[in-house]
Amino acid sequence: MEYIIEMLDITKEFPGIIANDNITLQIKTGEIHALLGENGAGKSTLMSVLFGLYQPEKGVIKVKGKEVKVNSPLDANDLGIGMVHQHFKLVHNFTVLQNIVLGMETVKHGLIEMKEARKKVMTLSEKYNLFVDPDALISDITVGMQQRVEILKMLYRDNEILIFDEPTAVLTPQEIDELMNIMRNLTKEGKSIIFITHKLNEIKAVADRCSVLRRGKYIGTVEVSDTDKEMMSEMMVGRKVNLKIDKKEVKPGEVVLEVKELSVKAKKEGHTKNIVNHVSFQVRKGEVVCIAGIDGNGQSELVQAITGISGMDLGKILLNGEDITKKSIRYKNTHGMSHIPEDRHKHGLVLDYTLGENLVLQQYFTPDFQSRGFLKFNKIDEYAKHLIEKYDIRSGQGSITSARSMSGGNQQKAIIAREIDKNPDVLIAVQPTRGLDVGAIEFIHKQIMEQRDNGKAVLLISLELDEVMNLSDRILVIYEGEIVADLDPKKITIKELGLYMAGSKKEEVKHHE
């Protein structure tokens, strides 16, 4: 049997944690091999070892049957190994073409020669249907297009083994389908792909085989066509996972959050259209209202205006009947609003603070946690321990772990613990499960449902259609900054929802006065 890559008995340790515990992984030539596991299972660490970013404590890597040493990404490159990281590594003020040739430039007489490079890039982009504009700046193109640039970077370097680390976390459903096609085309041309993910649908759609890691250990490898999703999720989590949500009947109470005629103007010069255009809605006690839409239709700006992260140009926001339009973020935080933000790194956590410090970010100034301007560290630690246990937040060193070093799923759990434990009247959750695995998703969905069943108002913003359909009591579809439909999830199909989101279907929206 011809394996293009073998990782044999790899062990990699970090302070307080064995990230990879004696793992063996074998990849066949020309296959799409999925690497499945929860956040923190050791998938990215294992791939970083293969890519030369980390050196293992023990174990052997073979490429095409020969033992190799991968001391750096440059070595990986020479061996034909390329990687698209979860957070893209692109220079934003460079063009697409400049990013692709970066580090591989042809220099003649001290000048960079781009003609040949451009030709090669255009040929590659046509061959693999990766149509990108070589002269566009990275800062001006969509996330889906940025990902294509990352793929072209690998192809430009003639890489044969392509590692995709959670490549669909930031894409729209349409872009995901396109990516799947691109991956199939790549293997048709003889490339071999390692696809790190925890989305079972995607594994079923494109992968040939799937290897599962759990808490740093290798669980097994299965043929995807013979294995159902339930079986894979059980291998991954170590127990049966309920992928369906049991919902009680909804009994909405009085209005908690009311948004009236909210508008946000476009920031860019020359744009006269509002990014958010006269949006009005209410969220009542005991209901989940979901704002669904394709990314970039104004939902981010809407939430940032409601929570106070950025401004609004028109409109009013009422919380429990009180006009809070002009109030500070801290006022909103201490008067019943909780916010699980879209970007957990930018707006959710202070990455260089400890887990404990992050858990009291909105309460450190209360008498519980400070006295005369001095923090009560023992109290903070006590509170953090309570939340870590209650929300199963896994971290190498408990409350003194740096937030930066935690896996995405555990960072997300920390934010959810902090926001829900404040006992808010309204919980605003923006893509709360983005990039998380089934175990963490199940946990987070339960927490959100518990808030609803306890009579809290929940405003959910999500791009995941399954999540929208499963959690919502009402769905508001946002398209080009306007609410174009108010739907009952029990009465529509996912397909119909998709049509509303794409703007090809509109209903007369009744304005609730």
UniProtKB/TrEMBL annotation:
CDD domains: ABC_Carb_Monos_I, ABC_Carb_Monos_II. It comes from the Bacteria. One of its GO terms (cellular component) is plasma membrane. Residues 5-240, 257-505 form the ABC transporter domain. The keyword Translocase applies. It is a peripheral membrane protein. Its main location: membrane. PROSITE patterns: ABC_TRANSPORTER_1, ABC_TRANSPORTER_2. Gene3D superfamilies: P-loop containing nucleotide triphosphate hydrolases. InterPro entries: AAA+_ATPase, ABC_carbohydrate_import_ATPase, ABC_transporter-like_ATP-bd, ABC_transporter-like_CS, P-loop_NTPase. The keyword Translocase applies. It holds the Pfam family ABC_tran. GO terms for molecular function: ATP binding; ATP hydrolysis activity. It is found in: Cell membrane. Keywords: ATP-binding, Cell membrane, Membrane, Nucleotide-binding, Repeat, Translocase, Transport. This is ABC transporter ATP-binding protein.
